[in-house]
Specification:
Blueprint lengths: L14 H6 L1 H11 L14 E4 L4 E4 L3 E5 L13 E5 H12 L5 H14 L10
Length: about 120
Amino acid sequence: MGKKKLQPPEPPFTIQEYEKSPYWRNKSKNILDKKDIECEICHRKRWKWLPRAKKWKRALRFSCHHTSYINVPNEKPEDMMILCYLCHSTSHLILRVRQISEMFERMAKIVEEYFTYDKDSYKGK
């Protein structure tokens, strides 16, 4: 008996509901399990080959970041960025603190160029 195929949440759903769903968790896990992925900002690799043990070891924590929600739940590769946890969390932090000073505002504009952030494109709830 095979595994039950996961389905996306029933529309309408919020992006937060979607990103907490088993469907998205499984989809992003399958992307992140590929052994050749690297962070699109800092280019560090997620997996490291251990020759003595003859196995792969996860070197860094990574995440799939949506740059566009227009195709949710049928995202295309260009709708996402693969980022290490450090680059992902730092980028979001910079976007949250942009109003503190001119320097943070300039940094936020750079982050938005990398993210090509399109958070208002989802037409759900």
